[in-house]
Amino acid sequence: MKPGPALLLGVLLLASAAPLSAFPLRVLVEGPKSTLKIAVSAPAQLRQDNGGTVDLLPGQWFTVRRENSGVVQLPPEGLVLVGDRWYPESVQFRWLRGGLLAVNFVDSETYLRGVVPREMPSSYGDHALMAQAVAARTYALTSWVRRKHGPHYDLVDTVVDQVYGGFARYNPRTGKSTLLTHPRTDRAVAATRDQFLDYSKAQGFYRAEGIAGWVRYGEYSLPVPKGRMLSQKVSQMMAQAGWNYHDILAYWYKSHVYQIAFPG
């Protein structure tokens, strides 16, 4: 079955929205496996480590093996299908730990568009989503700075780090793709561009629950944090009660929000 050559137009349009500034990330999204099947949504090229090139066309499968590993370079609107997910920007295939790994090379703001709707419901309030975006950006920055996974990638795409779904999910039974980004979480990422917690104090940890209980404060009840960790469900309650994202983040992390601009 062809890999959805008539990919959702919305996916292609969203993929072309390049950010003004960001920092580069390498996210492990697949493997290790003996081979990996890939496809592209727009004409692209696999630049092989052996110096050769392979032209890739939409609607065609290509099998990456150890001998033809390399980097898929995509045009601005392009996506590459690895496993059942479509990824933006570029994907490197390299042999490591006895198999092929697929690593998505992606800037931080594009990465966050695939993270925030996977980590927090897009139906949550604007300021809860904005707090989530700042927390997730801070977590990505600390991982990037500290190189905690070693020299080959900065993050994995599971709950070990942050759940990253790329931009769309492919269904091999139907040949159709479903968009995984969302306009509301995209707006939260864009509205908080270049904003971080002080990562010397807070690394951006968060959990769905993440509280030790409640304490009375006059006529109100306030949550008791479990260290410097945001509770997503309680942050939604705060947003519904009128807290802005700066106040939500300050409550959980005891940190102000700082603006850090990276070269565009």
Question: What can you see in these coordinates?
Answer:
With 264 residues, the protein is α+β, with helices and mostly antiparallel strands. It has one domain (9-259). Helix content is 25%, strand content 33%. It contains six helices and 19 strands. It has a seven-stranded mixed beta sheet. Strands 5-2-7-8-12-13 form a six-stranded antiparallel beta sheet, covered by helices on one side. Strands 14-19 form a two-stranded antiparallel sheet. A hairpin with a 2-residue loop joins strand 9 and strand 10.
Shape: elongated
Average pLDDT number:
91
Task: Report the C-alpha radius of gyration, rounded.
Answer: 20 Å
Largest sheet: 7 strands, mixed
Q: Span between N and C termini? A: 40 Å
Question: What is the element string, with H for helices and E for strands?
Answer: HEEEEEEEEEEHHEEEHEEEEEHHE
Q: Which features characterize this protein?
A:
6 helices, 25% helix, six-stranded antiparallel sheet, seven-stranded mixed sheet, alpha+beta, 19 strands, 264 residues
What does this entry show, briefly?
25% of the residues lie in helices and 33% in strands. The protein has 264 residues and is of the alpha+beta class.
